[in-house]
């Protein structure tokens, strides 16, 4: 009875902290934000280490319940959702969202919401979100209130998360794992805050990747390829996971698998081929690799060498080059990885390599690894899901200033733990 009471108290505390962070804490209120996250993650860790008889159904409902608590929250750690709604409203007004910068459009189109414009975090950049995302934006923007649009988007995210939890439970059972393993993802604070609360579309990336793994386990290769193609449709970067399926099926089947996945991804682009998707989206993609920098690892080291040798920031040349090296290493890793290495493990390491060589890593970028860690023996993504939240310390009421000491501690800790797990696994 005492143990059960403790669990209830911790679960209530967990829920209250989720509510407090999502509804009442500003991003720039660093002390309150980080203190609450430490307490939230401590509650999560405590639950993980308790010997309790959770079953899969209980954990699925528990995960859903905590996410539903945030149904009415307005994202407070990211303004991306306001660009989602902005794009959706443009399409509904017959305006090509890819063709115009918000800065320019607000001057010539007074019917565009000024209130929404003031909430945008990147009015000087073209939208970069793929067509399948834009469809959800349009559906969300069909209601007049911003809050209503946010709730509609959250319902889509919740649906993806429910599918992820159910699929993960099936994958764990197929691997004879314990139900408690599902808690690693179902109650992970970063997962809940960044997906359900702050509405990042990695929820769909994770959902369809897990389905791709599940269907391959069932030897349903076409369904697996379709699922992976949909994952790519939501955020192009998952295209790196095409390499993870190499050697897991015979060469002929693999070629067909890749073609089906790419065809599905391309089909989702067809409805907007007549728009400015390649001009506007391409311009923003170029900026992503040549201008944006946040919480990077290898790139920051290269940047320092550039400052020392050239006297200026070499991101315009170094950014794309480092990314290309990362993609090449992902290909080489999957080419030489043992045939016995599971899809989950290969997908995890492929995403880790991508993150190490990227110039920008926001907290929600690492979430696919958190999901994949449930299906492998590697748990360093869980440590990362704690440490990466400290990057929010750089925000203030006046803007953002990155603390490179926090970045250094983050990457040294995560990479060290990953190396330790590799050595431990080999022994």
UniProtKB/TrEMBL annotation:
Transmembrane stretches, start-end: 7-24, 30-47, 124-144, 151-172, 192-216, 225-247, 253-273, 314-336, 348-366, 378-397, 404-423
Highest taxon of source: Bacteria
Entries under Pfam families matching the protein: MptA_B_family
Signal peptide interval: none
Keywords: Membrane, Transmembrane, Transmembrane helix
Entry keyword annotation includes Membrane: yes
Protein name as annotated: Mannosyltransferase
Origin species: Marivirga atlantica
């Amino acid at each position: 009875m005492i143990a059960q009471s403790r669990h209830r108290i911790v679960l209530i505390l967990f829920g209250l902290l989720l509510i407090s962070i999502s509804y009442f804490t500003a991003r720039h209120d660093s002390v309150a934000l980080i203190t609450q996250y430490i307490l939230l993650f401590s509650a999560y860790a405590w639950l993980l280490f308790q010997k309790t008889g959770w079953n899969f159904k209980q954990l699925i409902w528990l995960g859903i319940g905590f996410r539903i608590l945030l149904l009415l929250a307005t994202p407070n750690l990211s303004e991306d959702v306001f660009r989602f709604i902005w794009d959706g409203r443009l399409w509904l007004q017959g305006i090509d969202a890819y063709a115009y910068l918000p800065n320019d459009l607000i001057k010539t189109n007074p019917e565009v919401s000024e209130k929404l414009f003031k909430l945008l975090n990147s009015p000087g950049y073209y939208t970069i979100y793929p067509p399948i995302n834009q469809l959800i934006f349009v559906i969300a923007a069909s209601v007049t209130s911003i809050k209503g649009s946010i709730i509609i988007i959250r319902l889509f995210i919740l649906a993806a998360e429910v599918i992820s939890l159910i699929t993960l439970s099936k994958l764990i059972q197929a691997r004879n794992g314990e139900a408690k393993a599902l808690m690693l993802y179902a109650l992970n604070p970063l997962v809940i805050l960044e997906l359900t609360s702050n509405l990042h579309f990695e929820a769909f990336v994770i959902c369809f990747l897990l389905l791709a793994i599940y269907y391959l386990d069932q030897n349903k290769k076409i369904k697996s390829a379709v699922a992976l193609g949909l994952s790519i449709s939501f955020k192009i970067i998952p295209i790196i996971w095409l390499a993870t399926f190499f050697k897991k099926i015979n060469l002929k089947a693999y070629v067909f698998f890749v073609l089906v996945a790419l065809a599905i991804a391309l089909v989702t682009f067809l409805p907007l081929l007549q728009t400015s998707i390649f001009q506007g989206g391409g311009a923003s993609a170029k900026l992503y690799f040549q201008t944006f920098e946040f919480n990077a690892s290898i790139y920051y080291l290269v940047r320092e060498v550039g400052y020392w040798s050239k006297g200026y920031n070499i991101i315009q040349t170094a950014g794309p080059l480092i990314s290309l090296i990362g993609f090449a290493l992902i290909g080489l890793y999957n080419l030489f990885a043992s045939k016995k290495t599971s899809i989950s493990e290969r997908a995890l390491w492929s995403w880790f390599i991508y993150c190490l060589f990227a110039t920008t890593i926001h907290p929600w970028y690492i979430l696919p690894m958190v999901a994949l860690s449930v299906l492998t023996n590697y748990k360093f993504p869980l440590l990362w899901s704690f440490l990466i939240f400290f990057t929010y310390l750089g925000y203030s009421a006046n803007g953002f200033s990155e603390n490179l000491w926090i970045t250094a501690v983050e990457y040294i800790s995560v990479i060290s733990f990953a190396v330790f797990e590799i050595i431990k696994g080999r022994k």
